[in-house]
């Protein structure tokens, strides 16, 4: 693999399983500039198609899923490790459907179910785009639904 900085060849200094055995994390060092960086090797399932609301299909792209979730989590307190775990959980659930074509709505529902547990603000952000909220009232209704599902502390 080439160094992302100087484009020289790199050497692997350490490899280990990551993401509960679903990826390999490799520490690398550049022979040219001496910089260190990490790469991840993951299985890429070919052939999975996403059925869009318009009826068109496009190949599944992990990057697109990652960008959507990152946008929802923008400026929220989470570590990169937590984010990668969340992304892998969502992706695993999508692949475990064992379908060749998955509706984008189903992927959105999977993301929402995980964000609801991970970060309520990110959940609302994602829901507002995914469900196309047009008014503040739509936000209010979604917040009320969230509040109904949150267990209340016992009052003494």
From TrEMBL:
InterPro entries: ATP-cone_dom (IPR005144), NrdR-like_N (IPR055173), RNR_NrdR-like (IPR003796). It holds the Pfam family Zn_ribbon_NrdR. One of its GO terms (biological process) is negative regulation of DNA-templated transcription. Keywords: ATP-binding, DNA-binding, Nucleotide-binding, Repressor, Transcription, Transcription regulation. GO terms for molecular function: ATP binding; DNA binding; zinc ion binding. The keyword NADP does not apply. Residues 48-138 form the ATP-cone domain. The keyword Flavoprotein does not apply. It comes from the Bacteria. Belongs to the NrdR family. NCBIfam families: transcriptional regulator NrdR. This is Transcriptional repressor NrdR. It comes from Candidatus Wildermuthbacteria bacterium RIFCSPHIGHO2_02_FULL_45_25.
């Amino acid at each position: 693999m080439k160094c992302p900085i100087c484009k020289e060849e790199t050497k692997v200094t350490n490899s280990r399983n990551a993401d509960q055995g679903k990826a390999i994390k490799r520490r690398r060092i550049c022979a040219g500039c001496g910089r260190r960086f990490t790469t991840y090797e993951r299985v890429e399932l070919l052939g999975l198609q996403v059925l869009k609301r318009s009826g068109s299909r496009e190949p599944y792209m992990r990057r697109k899923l990652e960008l959507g979730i990152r946008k929802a989590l923008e400026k929220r307190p989470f570590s990169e490790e937590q984010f990668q775990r969340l992304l892998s959980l969502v992706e695993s659930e999508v692949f475990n459907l064992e379908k060749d074509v998955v509706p984008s709505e189903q992927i959105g529902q999977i993301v929402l179910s995980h964000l609801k547990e991970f970060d309520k603000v990110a959940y609302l952000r994602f829901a507002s785009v995914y469900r196309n909220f047009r008014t503040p009232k739509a936000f209010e209704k979604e917040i009320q639904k969230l509040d109904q599902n949150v267990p209340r502390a016992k009052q003494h």
